[in-house]
Amino acid sequence: MMAEVEKEMVVQKSSNLKKQYGKVNFTGRGGFASVFSAKDLTSKKNESVAIKKLPHNTEKEKLNNLCEIAFLKVCVSHPNAVQYIKSFLVQPENEIWLVTEFLHGGTLSEAARVHTFIERHIAYVAREVLRALKFLHDNKFAHRDLKSTNVMMSINGSIKIIDFGLCADFTNGPRTNMVGSPFWIPPEMIKKEPHSLKVDCYSLAVCLLELFLMAPPHSTSGIKCMYMAVTKGLHDQIPKTASYEAATFLRKALEVDPEKRATANQLLDEPWVAEPGLSKGISEVLRDIFLTNTINDMGLY
């Protein structure tokens, strides 16, 4: 799969790409890359795109970059994964420009900080992310870095996972390396025990807690959150106001023992995410959230 990606890679001069994408605007920085927004001036409607710039120098960087592109290509048909468009090996900078669709909205993290979500809408987010996870897991892939900044929420109500840089193939069984981010990392990874597909189910549950609590559990300290995750679990962080169905779902996803933790398929069968009408009103909520965020960023309040 990666050999095919490398073969298809288009080598391009940065000066030529600037003609294609015009002004490239910085939007954020992750652990391994910087992300920009731009317009594809070669498209009929000058469509907006997101460009992730990745260093492509060391063997490890090259392997990670090719892996991420390969996983994006696998997910290109899924509505709950960011849509891959193309990638370039840019010279003389020796970096990858990974071009995907631009989602008008923001991250789950941004939304959780400024809005108290009703439970129905939290269940909707859970269902949409689970659909992406089911697709990945059915193909023996795990995202392994599911966190609130890697869940995009668009103003039309669509929910998509992004950033496949730590995604891995589990066809040959569990792995033991620890990757991910402190608040969302599952207990088995912290203990450096073998981990597999269910790591994503745990991380999703932490994202959902973030929507309930407007912050990650034990938000003042990632180290404390990791310690509590391993020693006690995070069940005590489930709000007392959560419905029985929501609490049951979260308990199953937050199970410390991965052998007892529910799979993505099992979680999709939970009554909490099977209720009709979960998406009602979500697009209006997200439009209000991200319009307010934009106005605040512009200093107009």
Write structural notes for this entry.
It is a single chain. By secondary structure, the protein is an alpha+beta fold. The protein has 2 domains: 2-101, Phosphorylase Kinase, domain 1 (2-Layer Sandwich); 105-287, Transferase(Phosphotransferase) domain 1 (Transferase(Phosphotransferase), domain 1, Orthogonal Bundle). The chain is 41% helix and 17% strand. The protein has 12 helices and 11 strands. The chain has helices at 2-8, 14-21, 59-74, 108-114, 119-138, 187-190, 199-213, 222-231, 244-253, 264-268, 271-274, 282-297, and strands at 10-13, 25-29, 34-39, 48-55, 84-91, 95-101, 105-107, 141-142, 151-154, 159-161, 168-169. The strands form 3 sheets. It has a 6-stranded mixed beta sheet. A 3-stranded antiparallel beta sheet has the order 7-9-10. Helix 1 (2-8) crosses helix 3 (59-74), helix 4 runs parallel beside helix 7 (199-213) and helix 5 packs antiparallel against helix 7 (199-213). The longest helix is centred in the middle third of the chain and has 20 residues, at 119-138.
